[in-house]
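Input (structure):
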């Protein structure tokens, strides 16, 4: 990998572990629960986070194993499985897998010669479409070796309930260094102890958690109602407009888009195809600036342009496509 990457620390010693705060919650949030259970009802909507890295050469296998083991100490969520409460009464609970095995989650394969980058992408596609074993921590990684030019490919797949995109970047950062030599005395944490949590136990934890949160929720509700009432007396029109604005925002979130969307994507299957289009960040920034937009604007415009050409190739004309935009809620 290039040594100029500003997102990769010089070594693991330079990692600020206090910044790796995700994965601390014992219980899934409502959003994470939705992502976890959605694929059971609609498998076509599976959306794992898949990161594909192209390496100039294959890393030492034992060092890679050690790096992932170390990362599982720093981020305990890596060692955790999701336990559904009895009858799904509540949100799933994260529990340390008593049978956690790095060798199950991290594998390697050597492609038969001749092998180019497209052959490696086919392996990535297979990994991306395999459903997770929900009795284990929902992530997997694969080192693909044997490319004709000496390069290697490292692909990591994580379930969206584990973390968001920013958390995924943090996790990948933990596995990298700009120094080729091993890092001694890097900061470490004691791995969490294995647990044997059952669905009944998960339900019990949910009940206890809700009881503990109830007083604070009631207090917040009372304070909120008092503040709204006071504001309504002093500025009734402002309060009414804020309430209506909130209601409209909520309606936009929970109401499905009015448009039918793409006829080509409506009945899509479980298969996926991977391809690459290389564009340098400086070139993309220059194009965005020329059009009066941001880097993100240019990226989204390129995606929509690709969808437009895809539909044209199949003789379909679509004026608009509903899309979801992930937004980082981190502070």
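Output (sequence):
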């Amino acid at each position: 990998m290039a040594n100029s990457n500003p997102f990769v620390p010089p070594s693991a010693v330079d990692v600020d572990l206090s910044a790796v705060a995700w994965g601390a919650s014992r219980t899934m949030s409502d959003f994470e629960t939705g992502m976890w259970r959605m694929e059971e009802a609609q498998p076509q909507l599976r959306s794992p986070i898949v990161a594909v890295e192209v390496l100039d050469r294959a890393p030492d296998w034992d060092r890679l194993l050690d790096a992932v083991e170390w990362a599982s100490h720093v981020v305990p969520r890596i060692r955790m499985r999701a336990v559904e409460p009895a009858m799904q009464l509540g949100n799933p609970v994260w529990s340390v897998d008593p049978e956690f095995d790095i060798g199950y989650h991290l594998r390697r394969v050597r492609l038969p010669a001749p092998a180019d980058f497209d052959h490696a992408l086919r392996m990535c596609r297979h990994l991306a479409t395999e459903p997770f074993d929900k009795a284990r921590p929902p992530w997997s990684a694969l080192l693909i070796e044997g490319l004709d030019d000496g390069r290697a490919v490292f692909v990591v797949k994580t379930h969206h309930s584990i973390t968001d995109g920013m958390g995924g970047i943090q996790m990948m950062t933990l596995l990298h260094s700009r120094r080729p030599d091993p890092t001694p005395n890097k900061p470490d944490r004691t791995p969490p102890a294995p647990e044997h949590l059952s669905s009944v136990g998960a339900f019990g934890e949910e009940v206890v958690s809700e009881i503990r949160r109830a007083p604070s929720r009631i207090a917040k509700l009372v304070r909120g109602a008092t503040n709204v009432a006071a504001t309504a007396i002093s500025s009734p029109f402002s309060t009414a407009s804020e309430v209506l604005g909130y209601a409209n925002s909520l309606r936009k979130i929970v109401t499905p888009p009015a448009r039918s969307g793409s006829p080509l994507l409506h009945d899509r299957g479980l298969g996926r195809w991977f391809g690459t289009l290389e564009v340098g960040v400086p070139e993309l920034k220059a194009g965005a600036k020329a059009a009066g937009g941001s880097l993100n604007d240019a990226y989204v415009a390129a995606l929509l342009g690709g969808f437009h050409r895809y539909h044209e190739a199949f003789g379909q004309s679509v004026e608009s496509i509903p899309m979801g935009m992930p937004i980082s809620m981190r502070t």
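Notes: Residues 233 and 239 are 9 Å apart (CA to CA). Residues 263-313 form one domain.
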